[in-house]
């Protein structure tokens, strides 16, 4: 039984309970509270199910693989240039985000969308299982960089305290080079963002390329709004495809947070409404473009 069916069954059962205790005010209010919670649970499940197409595209489209190939091919070309230009001094280094940049966590996203769950439900179990496969093209590119004496850093916001050993195990099992404690830099408790870790790499190495599926893998946009993030892209237009390599992720990311004004604590129903009002559609009747409105 999936989460959706299970929830419906529980609601049905609750309806029966309500009619069987009509004079018990306390029991009635308990049921009302439970029903309210179930409604939020249903809204959460509905919200999660909206991610089905994102996950299906990510897992099944050859186009997603082609985009990874495009990113890693461009990266190789740009890295070759850097290697050619390099005349001693600090050793060359590159820094890659892990999730949806090197490792494919879409089976975890698929769990969420099918079961009506949301991050961090089940994330720890997924990471500890160390079953993620590399994204298309990552392994070949990283082996190439390794063979050309480039230092490789994996800079990820996975938890240093909880996830380091399992992450290293996963990267190693998949044959990804330099996946050891010196090169896998996860987020320590109290740390904010990746800038500090990137700066640390720069003290010893010439950091020539950054890889990610999120703008934050490159730098922090000044303002974390849709406009602020677009300004960031405009400012760095010439970096993409050479110094910055970006990969596709329609399943989650900071782009989603901007829809909620960076507040994930709002209800599932509010999130759904904000998603809807963020999209622009063509109205065939008026021949006009309109903003998605909540009915
Ligand atoms: Mg990522």
- Number of helices in the DSSP assignment: 12
Q: What percent strand?
A: 5-15%
Report the bound ligands by name, code or SMILES. magnesium ion
Query: Can you tell me the residue ranges where pLDDT is under 50 for at least 5 consecutive residues?
Result: 1-25
The average pLDDT value, as a whole number, equals 90
Give the oligomeric state.
single chain
- Helix and strand pattern: HHHHEEHHEHEHEHEHEHHEE
Structural class: alpha/beta
What composes the largest sheet?
5 strands, parallel
Q: What name does the CATH topology of the domain at 52-253 carry?
A: Rossmann fold
Helix content: 40-55%
The end-to-end span amounts to 31 Å
* Proper CATH architecture of the domain at 52-253: 3-Layer(aba) Sandwich
Task: Report on this structure.
The chain has a domain of about 200 residues: HAD superfamily/HAD-like (Rossmann fold). The protein contains 12 helices and 9 strands. The radius of gyration is 23 Å and the shape is globular. Helix 8 links the parallel strand 4 and strand 5. It is of the alpha/beta class and about 300 residues long. Strands 5-4-1-6-7 form a 5-stranded parallel beta sheet, with helices on both faces. It has a two-stranded antiparallel sheet with strand order 2-3. The chain has a two-stranded antiparallel sheet with strand order 8-9. The longest helix has 25 residues. The structure holds magnesium ion (MG). The site of magnesium ion (MG) has 7 residues, from loops.
């Amino acid at each position: 039984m999936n989460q959706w069916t299970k929830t419906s069954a529980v609601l049905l059962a609750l309806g029966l309970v309500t009619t069987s205790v009509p004079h018990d005010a306390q029991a009635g209010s308990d049921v009302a509270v439970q029903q309210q919670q179930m409604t939020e649970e249903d809204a959460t499940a509905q919200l999660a199910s909206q991610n089905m197409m994102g996950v299906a595209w990510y897992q099944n489209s050859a186009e997603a693989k082609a985009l990874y190939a495009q990113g890693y091919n461009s990266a190789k070309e740009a890295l070759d240039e850097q290697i050619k230009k390099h005349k001693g001094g600090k050793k060359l280094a590159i820094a890659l985000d892990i999730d949806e940049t090197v490792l494919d966590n879409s089976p975890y996203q698929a769990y969420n969308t099918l079961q009506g769950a949301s991050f961090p439900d089940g994330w720890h179990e997924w990471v500890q299982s160390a079953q993620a496969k590399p994204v298309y093209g990552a392994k070949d590119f990283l082996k190439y960089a390794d063979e050309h004496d480039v230092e490789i850093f994996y800079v990820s916001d996975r938890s240093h305290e909880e996830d380091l050993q399992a992450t290293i195990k996963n990267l190693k099992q998949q044959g990804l080079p330099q996946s050891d404690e010196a090169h896998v830099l996860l987020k320590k408790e109290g740390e904010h963002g990746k800038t500090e870790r990137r700066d640390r790499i720069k003290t010893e190495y010439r950091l020539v390329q950054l890889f990610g599926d999120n703008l934050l893998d490159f730098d922090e946009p000044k303002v974390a709004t849709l406009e602020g993030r677009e300004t960031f892209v405009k400012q760095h237009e010439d970096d993409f495809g050479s110094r910055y390599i970006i990969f596709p992720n329609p399943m989650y990311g900071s782009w989603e947070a901007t829809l909620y004004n960076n507040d994930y604590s709002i209800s599932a129903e509010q999130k759904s409404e904000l998603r809807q009002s963020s999209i622009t559609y063509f109205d065939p009747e008026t021949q006009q473009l309109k903003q998605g409105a909540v009915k």
